[in-house]
Design goal:
Elements lengths: L3 E4 L5 E4 L13 H11 L9 E7 L5 H13 L2 E8 L5 H6 L11 H10 L5 E5 L2 E7 L15 E6 L13 H10 E9 L4 H10 L1 E7 L6 E7 L2
Parallel strand pairs: 3-4, 3-7, 4-6, 7-8
Antiparallel strand pairs: 1-2, 5-6, 8-10, 9-10
Helix pairs in contact: 1-2
């Protein structure tokens, strides 16, 4: 059975995971949450003409498609890496109503391409946006053999600690720290105290930022010198 589509409070679709029974996004609104966290407090915080992004959890592809159009508008070249252990079916992705929120003529073509291109190799979505999707569990991956460059921003969008606690603990978060360049940062919806303490132990400088509708705070973790 595919993941179940569920509408969130801003009218945008999300999915209920068949593996974990968790909603992929905030029930307050998939679109507004993704845009606030990963665009406004993610790629929009950089001044670079070319940027390397790693996303933990490709999921529905919403963060990737929003990044694609933001980068296109700003003339930014993006190398986008992401890992997903439980890929969303292409047909399910096509049924999501993000086209009601992303008013771009090329949306359907680009979004379908993101979901349908081959895994485990770099694929060109456009001349300025390259996508590398890794199909695996993050605990099993040695990123040094896959990602040959340092990452500017980590979009950390795993399921909540209550569903996948191991993804919010030292071994996996250390991998994120190692991926990042100096002064690169991780951005995530999670603001749990134990998670932030773990980030600090690893060496991150942790900042609490205002959250989207329905959430008081989100977390930025900067890899310092």
């Amino acid at each position: 059975m595919p993941n179940q589509i569920k509408k969130t409070n801003d009218g945008s679709d999300s999915l209920v995971s068949k593996q974990f029974g968790e909603l992929y996004h905030s029930h307050h609104g998939s679109f507004q949450e993704a845009k606030h966290i990963f665009i406004n407090n993610g790629i929009a915080k950089t001044q670079q003409n070319e940027i390397n992004i790693f996303e933990m959890g490709f999921g529905t592809g919403l963060n990737a498609i929003l990044t694609y159009y933001y980068a296109k508008q700003k003339g930014i070249k993006v190398n986008y890496y992401t890992i997903e252990a439980y890929p969303v079916l292409l047909q399910t992705a096509k049924e999501l109503n993000y086209n009601n929120f992303i008013k771009e003529e090329t949306y359907s073509e680009v979004f379908a391409k993101m979901h349908s291109v081959a895994w485990n190799s770099q694929q060109e979505i456009s001349e300025s946006f390259k996508l590398y999707k890794i199909k695996n569990e993050i605990e099993k991956i040695k990123f040094e053999s896959i990602i040959k460059t340092k990452i500017d921003i980590v979009y950390y969008d795993a399921f909540a600690p209550t569903a996948q606690s191991n993804l919010w603990e030292t071994p996996v978060l250390q991998k994120m720290y190692n991926l990042l360049k100096q002064n690169g940062f991780l951005i995530t919806y999670c603001a749990k105290g134990s998670f932030k303490r773990t980030l600090k132990t690893i060496g991150f400088k942790v900042n609490g930022l205002p959250g989207p509708i329905g959430k008081r705070e989100i977390t930025q973790a900067v890899k310092g010198l």
